[in-house]
């Protein structure tokens, strides 16, 4: 049984609205993860710049908030960064997929109307794409991942230079670093071949 055009339009429009709500939610989530990554990288930069002073400040904060022991703080920060980066990349990829999907919904809805209705996220948005928006997109998709790997590399190198009583914390941090770089490379490959 084929639905009538009115029923099909109603279903498509409802689905379009739901999909747009999902996109808006994903954008907010992605932005929160991006800010969390910047905060964690700032903490790591503080550790690189002032290793002795940062240890005391971070130790006090973590001890007060989480009750974590001092020897694992760097590894906890690394693990938090890995978690947030992976979630950021997952949300970014999911968001791209949702945009491709809403473009398909717009193509289905457009025949019911003439003019520009239901092209806001697709044809209308992509037509005459501003150069500034294109530059910002490149920052998020290329410069940010490269900068993330660069910052993480600086941090792991600085950790290898610090004297440690036990090799376990640096080994843990090195494994997390490798996982972080692998996740970033996989995301970058996805960005490169998504077209």
Outline:
This protein is mostly helical and about 200 residues long.
Describe the protein in words.
- The model has no long low-confidence stretch (mean pLDDT 83).
- The longest helix has 45 residues.
- It contains six helices and no strands.
- It has one domain.
- It has 195 residues and is an all-alpha fold.
- 82% of the residues lie in helices and 0% in strands.
- Helix 1 crosses helix 2 and helix 1 runs antiparallel to helix 3.
Provide the descriptors you would attach to this structure in a database record:
single chain, 195 residues, mainly alpha
DSSP strand count: 0
Helix and strand string, N-terminal first?
HHHHHH
Helix content range: over 70%
Strand content: under 5%
- The structure class reads mainly alpha
Q: What coarse outline follows from CA principal-axis ratios?
A: elongated
* Low confidence ranges: none
How far apart the termini lie comes to 36 Å
User: Total helix count?
Assistant: 6
- What does the radius of gyration come to? 22 Å
Q: How many structural domains?
A: 1
- Report the mean per-residue pLDDT as an integer: 83
**Biggest sheet features:** none
